[in-house]
Amino acid sequence: MRWDNQRDDRMAATLPGLEYSTTPTPGFAEVTFHEIRAKSVLSKVPGGSSMPFGWTVNPYRGCSHACTYCFARASHTYLDLDSGRDFDTQVIVKVNAPEVLAAQLRSPKWGREHVAMGTNTDPYQRAEGRYQLMPGIIGALADARTPFSILTKGTVLSRDIPLLAEVGKKLPIGIGVSIALLDRELQSTLEPGTASPQARLELVRRVREAGLPCGVFVAPVLPWLTDSVAQLDDLLASVRESGATGVTVLPLHLRTGAREWFFAWLERERPDLVAGYQRVYARGSYADRRYRRWLGERVAPLLRRHGLAPREGRSAVGTPADEEGLWPEGALPPALGAAPVRQEQLTLL
Ligand code: SF4
Per residue in 178-216, pLDDT tens? Predict the structure, then answer.
């Protein structure tokens, strides 16, 4: 594998059974951790990107949260692993991420720009409970007086709330939690490795109780599966009740890698919807603009009803409405139009 020359023999000595492994790790059924010593963990976002941040840190590659729609899946193929089951079960762990990051941030050239985490894979996926890389990463960022944001579905973050609260007194930091739906049955097959939506709402509550801001990404919204008025209304009511400081709604984005895996899931779980999804995603990764407009029209009054409407001049649908410039992992933001949907456009639905 591409990472072979960065195998971590030191960890093999200090954590027996967790070395660069080709067998599942006890306690993590079906998941194999590949421990590597990274040379760099601070990644610059390519110039010209629409992302509202310039730097990212991702201590893990692959994600045991295993969301069927995750568009980071394609990135696993760069490692000679596949974008389907391997993405869910073959997780690369940059075991030296805190030390390498600290060294990089000590450079006199470092400009203390915003660093985003959770932009590719989830930094609080289950592996973090074992490797505990994030406290060191947060500490390195705090020592370098570097503002940062974290986006996650992982309730492991609750472990670090006291640390984040301390750092938040000195630095602008942002926290976001992704919650796509409330339906436990659908969630367990759509995002089989994630904590329940209710546990994530509780995480939002705890972050807020610690005095930190916390946005919620209602993402992705899935045509026919999670986009009824009743579903969106219930979810936004729960988000409001959790004390979230902002909400962003994003329709499903199906990039290559995610597209094949998601459609395989749809064939298994809801074959009746396959033709409809083929129409909505006929032109590529983004949902058809008619669907995006339709969704925008549907969501706007619900946001107003729940007191979650963004400030004037901003859209809560398809743009980062929270103050911290957070961005959802595994999803790019399509720009949703606000134009009214004409009747003939609804034939798509
Ligand atoms: S969408 Fe996020 S939480 Fe889900 S598999 Fe991808 S990186 Fe992990």
Answer: 999 999 999 999 999 999 999 999 999 999 999 999 999
Q: What is the pLDDT of residue 248?
A: 93
CA 159, 165, 166, 172 torsion-angle sign: positive
Q: Do the Cβ atoms of 53 and 115 come closer than 8 Å? A: yes
* Distance of alpha carbon 89 from alpha carbon 291, whole angstroms: 33
Question: Which two structure tokens, joined as six digits, stand for 165?
Answer: 């609260």
Provide the whole-model pTM.
Answer: 0.86
State yes or no: pLDDT of 21 exceeds 90. Answer: no
Output the CA 157–ligand 1 centroid distance in Å: 15
88 three-class SS: helix
Residues with CB under 6 A from ligand 1: 63, 65-67, 70, 72, 121-122, 125, 153, 329-330
Q: What is the Å distance from ligand 1's center to 254 Cα? A: 13
Q: What percent of the chain has pLDDT over 90?
A: 73
Tell whether the model's pLDDT for residue 18 goes beyond 90. Answer: no
For the chain, the average pLDDT equals 85
> In this structure, are residues 325 and 114 in contact, taking their beta carbons and an 8 Å threshold?
yes
Cis ω before 108 (30° cut-off from 0): no
User: Is there a contact between 58 and 326 (Cβ–Cβ < 8 Å)?
Assistant: no
* The pairing of beta strand 148-152 with beta strand 90-94: unpaired
For residues 117 and 54, is the Cβ–Cβ distance under 8 A? Answer: no
With tokens 């193929």, the residue in question is 77
Q: Which two tokens stand for residue 3?
A: 């990472």
